[in-house]
# Entry
Amino acid sequence: MSGTVPEEAVRMTAWVRGRVQGVGFRWFTRARALAIGDLRGFALNREDGRVQVVAEGPRESCEKLLAWLREGDTPGAVTGVTEIWATPRGGYADFAVR
# Structure
C-alpha cells in the first residue's frame, strides 16, 4: 500500500490560567486556530478566571495551537496550561468565541 495515511482527528481541551480574561485572549485564540487551519471548536471564559479552549482536528494542528497557548505571543499573561486529549465529538461548524 502506498500513499499517505490521513491523520486521525483528535479533541484537545485546554484550560489556560493567568491573566487571560478581559485582554482579547479568546479572540486571539480563534484567530490562531483559523491561521493554523483544519480546527473546529471554541474558546470560552470560565467563572474561575481561566479560559477553556476546545479544538478538534488533526493532532498536529491541535499540538500547534497548544504550543501557542503555552509559549506564543498571547495577550495577557499565561501562567499555566492543562490539557486532556480525547476522541472528537463533532458538532462544530468552525472555531468560535463563546
Observations:
- Residues 37 and 51 are 21 Å apart (CA to CA).
